[in-house]
Write the structure tokens for this entry.
Amino acid sequence: MGSPSPRGAAVGRGIGIGLMYGLWKPRVLGAWRVPASGPVILAVNHSHNIDGPMLMGTAPRPVHFLIKKEAFVGPLDPFLRGIGQLKVDRTTADRTAITQALGVLENGGALGIFPEGTRGEGDFASLRAGLAYFAVRSGAPIVPVAVLGSTERRGRLISALPPLRSRVDVVFGDAFEAGDRSGRRTRKALDEATVRIQGRLTAHLDEARRFTGR
């Protein structure tokens, strides 16, 4: 299995831009906080099915997302691979996905992660250790991202999507380093990094909600 293509991710970004701006009204705040070059991890709260495509279409750089393998079904499998996305088996330590994700960062790319693992309340409550591992192992900074859309309206065809043509706010936070700069990858170091990350992501989400009124 080859490494994810940067060119494919750039194509995916173009598709995301067309799709997101065609169906919704994204308002992007703080995109300048994403480093213009070099490895970076975008940590995204996950409350809508469109959070991944929304980030692909609004981030200032092409993004390679770690996406659950269940999404790679039928024609979506070659399509998602073709636009540089990474298939991950969440039930095990997926060594192929880990190697590919680290490869993205080693090549100076942007890696997108939903730290909660599955689509939930979008509040970073169930943060997994994977994000800390990638951040500590690679030394890449983390940029927290809050995707805030309307989820209250009832009677929609698909409950996990914001209403079409509604405004969706994408708020990028300040980049930070998760590790303690020692390079240690012990369980204790990863646990400490996870606590540090959770605090920063939760604070960013609270601030984004206050700022946008969501």
